[in-house]
Amino acid sequence: MTMLRPQDRAGVSPVPTMFSAPYWEGCAERELRYQVCIACGAANHTPAAVCAACDGADLQWRRSDGRGVIHSWTVVMRPVGPDFDAPYAPVIVAMSEGWFLLSAMIGCEHTELSVGVEVTVEFHPIADGRLVPYVRPVR
Ligand SMILES: [Zn+2]
Fold first, then answer.
1. What is the pLDDT of residues 57-87, one digit of tens each?
2. Which of the listed residues 23, 75, 116, 136 has the most CB atoms within 10 Å of its CB?
3. Which residues surround ligand 1, an ion (CB under 5 A)?
4. How far is the centre of ligand 1, averaged over its atoms, from the C-alpha of 38 (Å)?
5. How far is the CA of 44 from the centre of ligand 1 (A)?
6. Strand runs (DSSP E) across 1-139, as ranges?
7. pTM tops 0.85, yes or no
8. What structural domains does the chain harbor?
């Protein structure tokens, strides 16, 4: 069995945009951020200029509590490149604030993945030193 762990050799690096820069600045401070629409209250992610629910243009950044449950997952046995260690497990997490985070599971065996597993976010560096969010089961 192989414990799922961060991809510290991964050479794929996020490129912040004018909309996503606050998200990545939060990650650099080990703070998970998402947008909330002032008009309708919807939580929004990925970062955007307007609300996905009502097209409202007044979005405010909030700090997430970093907790959620697995909404969907998969296990990758054949890595996309030589700098990824397999297996790894991309997951979609339903965050407690009502938004979805695309991340990867760490700290458990891939056989432990299941919809509804409670997780918490933690940050680990990729090859360029940038911190990215991973999730780990709450024990
Ligand atoms: Zn809205």
1. 999 999 999 999 999 999 999 988 888 889 9
2. 23
3. 37, 39-40, 42, 51, 53-54, 56
4. 7
5. 8
6. 33-37, 43-44, 59-63, 67-73, 89-95, 100-105, 118-125, 131-137
7. yes
8. 21-137 (2.40.50)
Cα 98 to ligand 1 centre (Å): 13
What's the gap in Å between 52 CA and the centre of ligand 1? 7
Beta-carbon-side half-sphere exposure of residue 69 (alpha carbons within 13 Å)? 7
Q: How many helices and strands in the chain, by DSSP H and E? A: 1, 8
> Which two structure tokens, joined as six digits, stand for 87?
């297996």
Q: Work out the number of other CB atoms within 10 angstroms of the CB of residue 115.
A: 12
Between the CA of 54 and the centroid of ligand 1 the distance, in Å, is 4
- Kindly give, in sequence order, each residue whose CB lies less than 8 Å from that of residue 77, ignoring residues fewer than 6 positions away: 86, 87
